[in-house]
Design goal:
7-stranded mixed beta sheet; 2-enoyl-CoA Hydratase, Chain A, domain 1; Acyl-CoA Binding Protein; binds coenzyme A; 10 strands; 2 domains; alpha/beta; 3-stranded mixed beta sheet; elongated
Length: 399
């Protein structure tokens, strides 16, 4: 929505502000102020240079800044505002008059200085943005359908990419994530990040995985699925560099249990953490039967893994499953900024430290994973599980 008063100021910017802003062109070097130590006043030459530099700004600095520039310019060149107050209905003139009048008796020298400093800060900000744009391009890894894999700034991102299915993990996706982890483990990046595209982090195992193999032998389907799950979780256990989960929204099932195998977990305050295994006649995976009690204590882990308790992001953080929670509004900006700083550390040092932190447990984790997959294979063949999954799928088909 554009408020009428703002729209009026915006509309006027091209013409009435012509004293302060004309053609837009390429980025320009910062102004060097010629100040005398005693007075800190800028010279007339610097003031004029600032006016020239302003014309070359590439980006519109916004109405508030333009009004400030206008007012400082008028104060610097004409002194305090003594023109009659325009009518309330003349939004543009009134906004300009107010800005100028608000400077009161600020001296012309001071106004010149403030104007020059403001232009200088606008130019610095723009050239910083320009530098950011010049940073290495994101390279997209080919050969994936259900995930996106990119590398930039020493970070390889593995992004669940079935947003219309809440990023449910299909068999194909399991295979692609395994491949992406293998590539990310060997590529030049310092850290790898897992996140989701869309409003969900992931809704877990695609429940259609249970039906797509049912035409064949059920036992074989369960055996193959258990082997795939074991291989999948093994890749998380063995991942050689820091692995960060950026939990952008709700997570259900295996994406939650895998968090125990991630080194850092950042979550939006919109995220929730749900492991409805008993509800689906299943049992925990992702080494959560071992790691969750270790991370959050047996009682809290039992509430989640036995009784399907859904945690908010704040609760998951209080229980140690999540490292830090960020407001959803600023989540992406804050998290990526932080991860870029982390990823600028020497990558071999990061890798050996990650390996030291995890090596003591590795054997144990592989044993836990084997056991969990064995139990799950039996669960998938149970009536309890088949009934629960068929119920979900038939409910969906009725909608
Ligand atoms: N497996 C298969 N399909 C899934 C899925 C899953 N785990 N999660 C979501 N989907 C599909 C839905 O069937 C729906 O597909 P459709 O548009 O073709 O009907 C689509 O994704 C959108 O989901 P929908 O249920 O309409 O969104 P919602 O916001 O109402 O609910 C969930 C989202 C995640 C709460 C709900 O889909 C759900 O409970 N999914 C099952 C989660 C689960 O039990 N995972 C396994 C854990 S072990």
């Amino acid at each position: 929505m554009v408020y009428p008063a703002l729209a009026a100021v915006r509309g006027c910017c091209r013409q009435p502000f012509c004293e302060i802003r004309r053609a837009q062109a390429v980025c320009i070097p910062a102004i060097h102020l010629h100040v005398t130590a005693a007075t800190m006043q800028v010279s007339q030459e610097d003031f004029e240079k600032a006016q020239e530099q302003l014309k070359l700004l590439k980006n519109d600095p916004g109405n508030e800044t333009k009004l400030k520039l206008y007012a400082l310019f008028k104060q610097a060149t004409e002194g305090p505002c003594n023109s009659p107050k325009p009518s309330m209905l003349d939004f543009v003139k009134k906004a300009k008059w107010d800005a100028w009048n608000s400077l009161g008796n600020l001296s012309q020298d001071n106004a010149r200085q403030k104007y020059t400093e403001l232009v200088s800060s606008l130019i610095s900000a723009e050239s910083a943005d320009q530098k950011k744009d010049d940073s290495p391009h994101e390279s997209r890894h080919g050969g994936y359908e259900t995930i996106l894999v990119t590398t930039k700034n020493n970070i390889t991102k593995i992004i669940f990419n079935r947003p219309d299915k809440k990023n449910a993990i299909s068999r194909k996706m399991y295979g692609e994530i395994i491949k992406a982890l293998e590539e990310a483990g060997k590529d030049d990046s310092a850290i790898a990040v897992i996140t989701g595209n869309g409003d969900y982090y992931s809704s877990g195992n695609d429940l259609n995985n249970f039906t797509s193999g049912l035409s064949g032998e059920v036992e074989k389907m369960a055996k193959d699925a258990a082997a795939l799950l074991k291989e999948f979780v093994d890749h998380f256990i063995d991942f050689p560099k820091p692995l960060i989960a950026v939990v952008n929204g709700p997570a259900v099932g295996i994406p939650v249990t895998l968090l125990g195998l991630c080194d850092v977990v950042y979550a939006s305050d919109r995220a929730t953490f749900h492991t409805p295994f008993s509800q689906l006649g299943q049992s925990p995976e992702g080494c959560s039967s071992y790691l969750f009690p270790k991370i959050m204590g047996l009682a809290k882990a039992s509430e989640m893994l036995l009784f399907n308790k859904k945690l908010t992001a704040a609760e998951a953080c209080a229980q140690g499953l999540v490292t830090e929670v960020f407001p959803d509004m600023t989540f992406q900006k804050e998290v990526w900024k932080r991860l870029e700083a982390y990823a600028s550390n020497p990558k071999n040092s990061l890798a050996v430290t990650k390996q030291l932190l995890r090596s003591v447990e590795k054997e144990k984790l592989h044993a836990v994973n084997s056991k969990e997959c064995e139990v799950l294979m039996e669960r998938w063949l149970s009536k309890e599980c088949l009934n629960a999954v068929s119920w979900f799928l038939t409910q969906r088909s009725k909608l």
